[in-house]
Amino acid sequence: MEKTADEVKRLQSCINDLISVLALAAIWSGSESCQMLGTLLDSLLAILRVDFACARLNDSIDGSPIEVVRLAQRQHPSAQPQEVGQALGRWLSGDQTASRFVIPNPAGEGEVAIASFSLGLQDEIGVLVAGSRRADFPTDIELLLLRVAANQAAIGLQEARRSGDQKRVAEALERRVAERTSQLTAVNEELRRSQAYLAEAQRLSHTGSFGWRVSIGEILWSEESFRIFQYDRMTKPTVELILQRTHPEDAALVKQTIERASQDGKDFDHEYRLVMPSGSVKYVHVVAHALSDESGGIEFVGAVTDTTETKRAEEALRRSESNLAEAQRLTHTGSWAWRVAGGDALHLSEEWYRIYGFDTEKGPPAWEERLQRTHPEDRAKWQGAIDRAIGEKSDYEVEFRILLPGGTVKYIRSVGHPVLNASGDLVQFVGSSTDISASKRAEESLRQAQADLAHINRVTTMGELTASLAHEVNQPIAAAITNANTCLRWLARDHPDLEEARAAAARIVKDSTRAAEIIKRTRLLFKKDIPDRELVDVNELIREMIVLLRSETTRYSISVRTELAADLPQVTGDRVQLQQVLMNLMLNGIDAMKEVDGTRELAIKSQGAENEQVLVTTSDTGVGLPAQQGDQIFKAFFTTKSHGTGMGLSISRSIIESHGGRLWAADNSPRGASFYFTLSTKVEAKE
Amino acid sequence: MNPADAPTVFVVDDDAAMRAAIQGLLKSVGLRSETFGIAHEFLGRKRPDGPSCLVLDVSLPGVNGLDFQRELADAGVQIPIVFITGHGDIPMTVKAMKSGAVEFLTKPFQDQDLLDAIRQALDRDRLARQQQPTAE
Fold first, then answer.
1. pLDDT (tens digit, 9 = 90+) per residue, A528-583?
2. Cβ of A471 and B86 within 8 Å?
3. Are the CB atoms for B108 and A482 separated by under 8 Å?
4. If you compute the radius of gyration of chain A from its CA atoms, what whole number of angstroms results?
5. What CA–CA distances, in Å, run from A281 to A224, A285, B18?
6. Chain A residue closest in CA terms to B17
7. Min Cα–Cα distance to chain A from B104, Å
8. Model pLDDT for residues B68-115, shown as the tens digit of each residue
9. Sorting pLDDT into bands at 50, 70 and 90, what band is A642?
10. Buried-most residue among A232, A339, A378, A421 (CB within 10 A)?
11. How confident is the model at residue B134 (pLDDT cuts 50, 70, 90)?
């Protein structure tokens, strides 16, 4: 009986435990696998008198196995669940169902008996192991409870896995939905932005887009298209509206183009003008591409560009080009550019062709042809200037003549400027060539007129000097006659003195030569000649002129003093013209002293001056310059003399200036006047 | 003839060729001469003991021959003068002659005319010198 009572008690306890184990399913419903195993092991420790329990779950969500270990409270406090798990490794990995093993206690002293159960039919889910130091472990009831617990756990874990899978699928789905949603948002944003860009690009490029479904007569315009045609955005675009805006002169052609396109269904491209409500005119360029719409009808897509500004710029460019051409024509200046390597012309303006007499139709002439057209006498000069500029990478300026096939000769002034590339190499020359024939001819005739005037001045002056000049020639002639008579006297003696006769004859030769010399110089001054440039010794000119004017100075009891620099450099100039200047200045000085009492001295001085110049001064002790009239004395027809022409100083100044010098006057102290002029000793580049 | 009594002809002309020509002519007739390019150089020359005369060019630089004639007179130098000139005119001739000139010749002159005038001048000076000691 007592045994039966114990049995009943034991069974009751067992049933309670079973209920507890079965209740676990309700507890862990909805839990994660890991959490579920924890609960299971905790319950087993509480229900059974085991020292530890552990479970292994084969595949978790991330694929690696999970091991959970629980130790009973009474176990050695230092025991670590990890060590227990490791010690049980062999049993946790294999199927040791319902077997009893005794192993060294992994969680304390002595030995433990362990029991292991597979979770699932072939432990595909995992393994459950429990251990106890009791020798009777596991009892039949413990085995039963453990098996039931294992089955419960297998079911729960399978469910958990299933619901976990479902959750994962749901989550993945949700994620994908979210991804797609954000992608879509991005695409929408991109679209919105690119539409904004497009609108902006259309606005900036003054290009609107359009679509035109011919069959249903529907026209779609972009914002810019509305702006170009200046219609309200709410307006429905039609062909009629387009034609309304079209310039009357272009309307017929536009209408024809549109009509033909709507019939042929072919691409079209046309330019025409619009007249805006304000009356202003716009240029538009329309390009359309034909497509077939879904129903097989004709559809066009295209662009309309406002080309007004381009047209205006083109027009301005054309105008400035035509102005330039006009300016080149008016100034007879052709522009050009040529490549240093090979001498090919990169640019030759129309005026250049005209000046050189080449045909624009035949294209730019080669270097050789251009060289051929240069006047043979000037080719070396031209080539030399260019070669020098190439060598020095410098500007050049050269005057030369060209000889046209018909024999026409033109004077050209070319100015070239070097163009260097980034590394400083000379690549080309740009510049201009001006036809200076007209100004050359004008210069020539001016020079002639000045020469004529100077000649008249000389002749007039010499005319006034006739008496003086006659006296100057008379002097050696008188001496010669006397010497001739003397010579005859020596010869006529009873015993002719040949020695003395020869000496007299020698004097005759000397005197006659002197007379001839004076006549020659006088004649030179009378000669009408083209101005000539030569190297002139200024001191020699002064001495010659003093001789010519000696009678004049003597006649008025004027003493002549000279102060001539010994090392004076020669000047380049026209000898006769420079002599004329000296003559005019010296005669002025003589004139100024004619009526003056006291010392009459004409001083002539030559000296070197700065800038490689020679300074010549003629000073007198005469009446001085006319008061308050300063520079007036150099004006033509200005004179204070009763017999003067008023040309002398004016001509003298123009002669000196044409020699690159200066002529001026100043009063002397205490009386008289000085005239100064400079002459350059440098050889002038200009002709 | 005593060399001290030999006549001397002074020539003042700014033209060297003219001076040489006159001197050569005088030499051919055996007359001694002294020449000057500047009038005032003659002023500094001591008069010789023998008879002398002056051949004077009218156009001289710095001073006119006629003015020089007066200058000589003012200085008490009494010497017969034969004027020669490149461009003489009647008023000038008259003025010179009135002031006591022996002759006024225009260049180019005949050699004989100059020699005649010089002889006449020397005679006049000789005469003046003969009269002078009586006056003293």
1. 666 678 889 999 999 988 888 887 888 788 889 999 999 899 998 888 889 889 98
2. yes
3. yes
4. 64
5. 17, 13, 101
6. A479
7. 15
8. 888 888 888 889 999 998 876 788 788 888 888 899 998 899 999 999
9. low
10. A378
11. very low
Record: contact B24-A483, CB cut-off 8 A = yes
Tokens of residue B3, six digits:
């060399």
Option in A486, A553, A560 nearest B24 (CB): A486
Question: In the structure encoding, which two tokens stand for residue A616, read together?
Answer: 């010549």
| Rg value, chain B, Cα | 14
Q: How far is B46 from chain A (nearest CA, A)?
A: 26
A-chain residues within 8 Å CB-CB of B25? 482-483, 485-486, 489
Confidence of residue A404 (pLDDT cuts 50, 70, 90): very high
φ, ψ (nearest 5 deg) of residue A642: -70, -30
Residue in chain A lying closest to B18 (CA): A479
Please give the full DSSP string across A641-672, using - where no structure is assigned: SSS--S-HHHHHHHHHHHTT--EEEEE-SSS-
Q: Supply B88's token pair.
A: 């003489």
Cis previous bond, A496, omega within 30:
no
Distance (Å, rounded) from C-alpha A153 to C-alpha A35? 12
| Amino acid (1-letter code) at residue A282 | K
Whether the predicted pLDDT of B41 surpasses 60: yes
Residue in the structure block whose two tokens are 């309309």? A304
Query: Cα(A304)–Cα(A284) distance, rounded to whole angstroms?
Result: 7
B107: nearest CB among A475, A507, A555: A475
* Of residues A117 and A317, more confidently modeled: A317
| Residue of A510, A577, A572, A592 lying closest to A545 (CA atoms) | A577
> What interhelical angle do B16-28 and A498-526 show, nearest 10?
150
B60 touches chain A (CB under 8 A): yes
Q: Is the pLDDT of residue A294 over 80?
A: no
User: How many C-beta atoms surround the C-beta of residue A54 within 10 A?
Assistant: 26
pLDDT at B4: 61
Residues in chain A closer than 8 A to B29 (CB atoms) = 489
Q: What global pTM score does this model have?
A: 0.47
Contacts of B21 in chain A (CB under 8 A): 478-480, 482-483, 486, 507, 511
CB contact under 8 A, A471 and B63: no
Nearest CA in chain A to B62: A557
Pick the closest to residue A617 from A626, A608, A625 (CA basis).
A608
Mean pLDDT in chain A? 85
**pLDDT grade for A144, boundaries at 50, 70 and 90:** confident
Name the pairing type of β-strands B32-36 and B8-12.
parallel
A107 with A71: CB under 8 angstroms?
yes
The token duo for A260 is 């033909």
CA distances from A76 to A73, A79, A80, A129, B114 (A): 8, 6, 9, 19, 179
- Asked if A471's CB is within 8 angstroms of B87's CB, the reply is yes
User: Chain A residues with CB-CB distance to B under 8 A?
Assistant: 467, 470-471, 474-483, 485-486, 489-490, 500, 503-504, 507, 510-511, 514, 551, 553-555, 557-560
